[in-house]
Amino acid sequence: MPETPIHLTTGGLPETIIPSYQSEAVSALADALAAPPSDRKAMVAAVAAKWPRFLDPWVALGNMSDELIERYAYFRVGYHRGLDTLRASGWRGSGYVRWTHETNLGFLRSLLGLHRSAVAIGESDEAERCAQFLMQLDPSGVPESE
Q1: What is residue 138's DSSP assignment?
Q2: End-to-end alpha-carbon separation of the chain, Å?
């Protein structure tokens, strides 16, 4: 991913925006998500395998999974891949990563999915850390649509 500048907000904290992903990866995910239900998960997994740094397939796999631990694992992969992506985008461990930027959604949704999965399996320490991190990244909170 190309380096992108860190933007300073009026409050002084830096704001990181994840760059756009390759159009080929985005198109492949759209095709996979539009596939018949019997093929969908395997096709999304193929997108994740081909573009493992593309966060949206990890979120989609987490959302498609019926097994709680599998959901947790997919969201955890998306979260950790997302941290790597944020760092490559100039994030230095603090500052905003807002829901209003489409390219940030894969990371934020991974973190939200990890939070919800941690709650579901009784991993209260991790659930609390995820909730705090979400609020630090965007104090306006998780949009109702999520």
Answers
A1: -
A2: 27
**pLDDT tens digits, 2-36:** 555 555 555 668 899 999 999 999 999 999 999 99
Long-range contacts of 36-39 (CB under 8 A, 24+ apart): none
Structure tokens, 142: 């998780």
Helix axes 105-121, 124-137, angle to 10 degrees: 160
Residue 142 CA to its chain's centroid (Å): 13
Report yes or no: 63 and 45 within 8 Å, Cβ to Cβ. Answer: no
Could you tell me the pTM of the whole model?
0.90
What region, left, alpha or beta, does residue 141 occupy, with left being phi > 0 and alpha being psi -120 to 50 degrees?
left
